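Hey, I was hoping to borrow your eyes for a little while. I've been staring at a protein lately and its backbone has me curious. You're getting the sequence in one-letter code plus the fold written as tokens. Would you mind checking whether the tokens look sensible for this chain? Here's the protein in full, and shout if anything looks odd to you:
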Amino acid sequence: MFNILPQPVSILLNKDKKGFTLHAGTTISPFSFTDDFISFVRKKFNKKVRVHEDTGEERSIILKLDDSVEQEEGYTLKCENRRVFITAKTESGLFYGLQTLKQLLLQTDGKIPYTEIVDYPRFSYRGYMLDCGRYFYTVDEIKRIVDLMALHKLNVLHWHLTEDQGWRVEIKKYPLLTEKGSMRSHTNFNHKPHGGYYTQDDVKEIVAYCHERKIKVIPEYDIPGHSVSAISCYPYLSCLDRDLEVATHWGVKHDILCAGKESTYQFVFDVLDELMELFPDKIIHIGGDEAVKMRWKHCPHCQKAIKDNGLKNEDDLQMFFMGKVNEYLKSKGFSSVMWSYDRIENSENLSPDIAWTVCGMGDDKALVENEIKRGRKLINTHCYPYYFDFPYGWNTLKMVCEDDGALTENDEETLGIEAQMWTEYVPNMKRLEFLTFPRLGAMAENAWAEKGYGSFATFLHKSSDYFKLLDVYKVGYAPIKKACPSFVYKHASSIWFKRRVFHWEGLHNLIDDKKAIKEAEKIKKGLNK
């Protein structure tokens, strides 16, 4: 039996019938996405597959769209009589069939026996979040990540583009966002400046590259918190018009966008207008996490907004803020996603048509079930085990393998799964690949294979063939011993990570908060005169 990852719904072999052998004269049907497969064959087998319409000849790989295939992303694959037939309802299904065919060829050295495969995904949302706000990754590096996502049949790139530590996307109406906001004076790893941003042409190039690989792109514009890079460029966006520098270290910042000024909303809408032109998949992640209300409590503009809109407190004000942004996006034909990191006590004030990426409150079953009843769509991004920036000592490969994937017992109540790659401690591709793989393989199996299939034992059984597949792409993955660390390595990696996370930002916030309160009092006195 083949060790396909993620596991197909069914595989049937018959060694008494003729299968398929890869030859120098092999042809493939003409679809725009076949270059990826042709490149794989050339790289591994040193053979050139030609693009050609089916002429009835042997040694053909025939791709066919067929509306009779029920599942939107499903496919059937049959190797018989020296041909391969892949049939699907959509081009996505055909593309996924080719990813499976790669593994069949690799495990048989190009000589596949008679095989029938029926396959379709468990969840419709299978994502990977890449944080480019802390560390900038080049266009070519993102394309490599996208290629590896496609290999695992993932279909959503959640692209985190704005952060306290860096603004990464060109907004033509606000040029300072990239001229100044994309650079920080130093990072946690060294005292060298770090920065970079994507031009709008870069973004279009990456989006097109993703679409060719059947991956949607959801940009994240993180508001109202995590906005120091924007405030450093345009101080009026903050409650106190403060002059700030782009943040240098990880940690929750207390300076966030002011929710009481119309100028803030105008800025947000202007940015969204340009983002909507760049991201045609019509979904934007609007952040919403870790928005400390310290400034809002003392801001006369925010307090006036609470009073004028009949709100109870600053938490209600955030729901009001996110609701206005959501309504603006809806008016343009877009939908919103936001984080649900903390328990949201007043979520009844938040429109249920905003989907949640669920990370911190996944264990709160009552809250999850209540939001599902309200009609909210939920994506499993739970910190444990799907934060892949965490060391293997915190989120072991075994933990990923043994996660059910669904947030409740009913699969239909979970939109899908998304792995998270926050990059404050992941400064380069070498570190990213080591932390992502093999955990992404286990996550992909949870998201694609039938409920109840996955286990640590089954993954270990497949791991040798899986690593051979990654070797073709020269992926710098963690070996099993490091992905499932011993007691000593587990605690050593944990100490390393905690040492990185430790900093004096908390003390700085305490001192800065007192300074901000004095500034707020001055503003109040000025308004009262």
About this structure: The longest strand covers residues 216-223. The chain has a mean pLDDT of 93. Residues 348 and 407 are 20 Å apart (CA to CA). The chain has two domains: 10-119, 125-448+456-505.
